[in-house]
Structure formats: C-alpha cells, structure tokens
C-alpha cells in the first residue's frame, strides 16, 4: 500500500464529516475503493475526499442517499444517468419553490396574527390574561386566507390530521 492512501480520520477531517458517516457511506456503496491494512484499518484513496464532498453537496441539493447510491451505481457500471440526475434535481427544485411559497404564506399569517395579538393586548387591562393562544383555535379566517393563497399558487389545501386521542 502506498503512502498516498489516507486513513479515516484524515478523510473525515478533510471532507467535513465524521468517521461514522464514512463507514455508513462505505456500507451503502457510496464510497468504493476502500481497502484495509493487514491490521484491518481502513485506508481510502486520495480521490475519496472529493467523492465525500460531492456526496455532501448532492445531499444539500436534495438527493437522498438511496437516489445517490442508485445514480452513482449506474455511473460506475458505465451507464449515463445524467438525464435522471437532472430530473431529480428539477423535482427537488419544484418542491423547494413550493415550500418557499408556503413559508412566505406562513410569514404573512404570522404577521397578521401578531397584529391581531397586538390589538388584543392593547385592549386587555394590565394583569388580565389576553388569551392569545386561545385565539389560535378560532383563527378560521387565517386558515381560509391561507387556503385561498394556496389555491392561487396552485398548491393543494393543507389538511390537518388530528391524532385520535385529541379528536373530539
């Protein structure tokens, strides 16, 4: 074995992950080329640093480990998964854009709620409960506005699933 091969601690430090993460990546086939010394210690090729960094970036853009293992497996078998990779990232972007829209609507709802709470607090005498949290139960107007905004954005209505033990 040559001096260029690196140990798990060096690889973990260089790529910003834990040694447990490296073992997990190796187990699921994302980190091929790992060898063992006579004493059983793992050794990685220097290219493993870039491979782990690529895995981390792929996870950041929304790939699951399963998707990534599938795509990398295809690539290593000589197939060309580029269009599939592009489609996966396109799906992740669509989901992200929908989530950003939902978060914007939530922000607007929270602003409205804070204005209503400020008004309630201004009308509530000092020392008395304003029952702000109780207002959350009766904010059907907020839900209706959110549903209207969702339908304008082409999003499905959000249904709230109440666990059986809390259902009336």
Gyration radius, to the nearest Å? Answer: 26 Å
Low-pLDDT windows of residues:
160-168
User: What is the count of DSSP helices, taking H or I runs of 4+ residues?
Assistant: 7
Helix/strand/pairing category: mainly alpha
Which strand order do you get reading across the main beta sheet? 1-2
Average pLDDT over all residues: 86
Q: How far is the N terminus from the C terminus? A: 68 Å
Strand content: under 5%
Number of extended strands = 2
User: What global shape is seen?
Assistant: elongated
Main pleated-sheet profile: 2 strands, antiparallel
Provide the helix percentage: 55-70%
Order of helices and strands: HHEEHHHHH
What would you note in describing this structure?
With 168 residues, the chain is an all-alpha fold. Among the domains are: 8-57, Multidrug-efflux Transporter Regulator, Chain: A, Domain 2, CATH 1.10.1660.10; 91-152. Helices cover 61% and strands 2% of the residues. It contains seven helices and two strands. A two-stranded antiparallel sheet has the order 1-2. Strand 1 and strand 2 form a beta hairpin. The protein is elongated and about 80 Å long. The model is unreliable at 160-168 (pLDDT under 50).
């Amino acid at each position: 074995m040559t001096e260029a091969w690196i140990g798990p601690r060096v690889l973990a430090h260089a790529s910003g992950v834990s040694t447990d993460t490296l073992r997990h990546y190796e187990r699921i086939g994302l980190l091929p080329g790992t060898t063992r010394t006579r004493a059983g210690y793992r050794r990685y090729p220097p290219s493993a640093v870039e491979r782990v960094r690529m895995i981390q970036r792929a996870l950041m853009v929304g790939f699951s480990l399963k998707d990534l293992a599938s795509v990398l497996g295809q690539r290593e078998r000589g197939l060309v998964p580029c269009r599939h990779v592009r489609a996966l990232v396109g799906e992740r972007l669509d989901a992200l854009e929908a989530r950003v829209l939902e978060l914007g609507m939530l922000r607007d709802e929270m602003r409205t709620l804070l204005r209503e709470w400020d008004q309630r607090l201004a009308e509530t005498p000092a020392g008395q409960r304003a029952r702000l949290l109780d207002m959350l139960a009766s904010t059907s107007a907020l839900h209706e506005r959110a549903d209207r905004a969702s339908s304008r954005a082409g999003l499905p209505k959000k249904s709230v699933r109440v666990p059986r033990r809390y259902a009336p």
